[in-house]
Amino acid sequence: MPVSSRTRTLLTWLPATVLVLIIAGVVVASLAIQGSWWAQDRPAASDDQRASDGSSMLTDTGFDYVNVSGTFKVRIGEGALSAAELGLPENGEKSAEFRRPVRAVVAAGEELYVLDDIAGLTATSVDGELASVTFVPDVTSNWTGALDYLRALAPDLGWDAAQLDPLTEQLGEFNRTGEGDTFTAQIGPSQGGPAEITGNILFDRASGATPVTVTFEPGD
Fold it and tell me: Which is nearest to 197 in space by CA: 78, 88, 90, 108?
C-alpha cells in the first residue's frame, strides 16, 4: 500500500517529537531534584528527623537525614529521651543500613563516644526506654581486621584489650575441631561508666567473614 506524503511527513517528525518529550522529562526531573531537600549542601533537619535534644530520630526520615549529614547522634541512659520521643515503639527495634559510612556520636552521662565508618545500626526499646544501640562498623571483614579494630577502640570504650589475646588460639581450636558453623567472641562489657559497651565478633567457617558489632547500653 503506497504511503502518502502526509504520512511520510508524520513519520519524519515522530522521532524528533519523542526526543523532545524525553528531553522535557529530563529537564523537569532535574529541576525537581535541584529544588529538593536532598540536593541541598547542608539541609536543616526537620522535627521528624532530629529529636528535641539533638538526637537523630530512630525512624526512616531520621535515618534519611543521617545519610545526608553523615553523622548519627543519640543519648542513652540518664537524661535520654523516651522511646516514643525518638520514634520507637514501647517495645521493639528499628534497624538502618546507611548509604555510606557515617560517624556515630553516643552521649552517656558526661561522656561522649565516637565511632567512625558505621555502616548500619539497630536500636532497641524496652518498656518505653531506649535499651540499646548496636552499631555495625564498615571494617575489614577478616579475623585480623576485626581484632585490630576492637583493640584500637579498647582505650576509649573502657575495655581491657587483653581479653582479645586468647581469641586467636580459641579460633584455631574451633577450626581444628570442625564442629559448628560459627565462632563468636566478646570483649567487654565496660564497667563502672555511664554506658555498658560490648564488642562482638562472629567468624563464619564457610566464608571466613568476620563481622563486628559494638553495642551501647545504659550503665548502672
Answer: 108
Q: How far is CA 84 from CA 52, 144, 177, in A?
A: 12, 40, 48
- Residues in the chain, how many? 220
Q: What is the pTM of this model?
A: 0.79
Residues facing 73 on adjacent strands: 105
pLDDT digits (tens, 9 = 90+) for 189-212: 998 889 999 999 999 998 889 999
Collect all residues with Cβ–Cβ distance below 8 Å to 35 and sequence separation of at least 6.
Answer: none
Phi, psi of 215 (to 5 degrees): -115, 130
**Strand-strand pairing, 71-75 and 92-108:** parallel
* Tally of CB atoms within 10 A around 129: 19
- 197 grid coordinates: 559497651
Q: Which residue in the block uniquely carries the three cell numbers 579475623?
A: 143
Start-to-end CA distance of the chain, whole Å, equals 89
Question: Residue ranges of the alpha helices (H) in the chain?
Answer: 5-34, 60-69, 143-157, 167-177
- Rounded CA-CA distance 77/49 in Å is 21
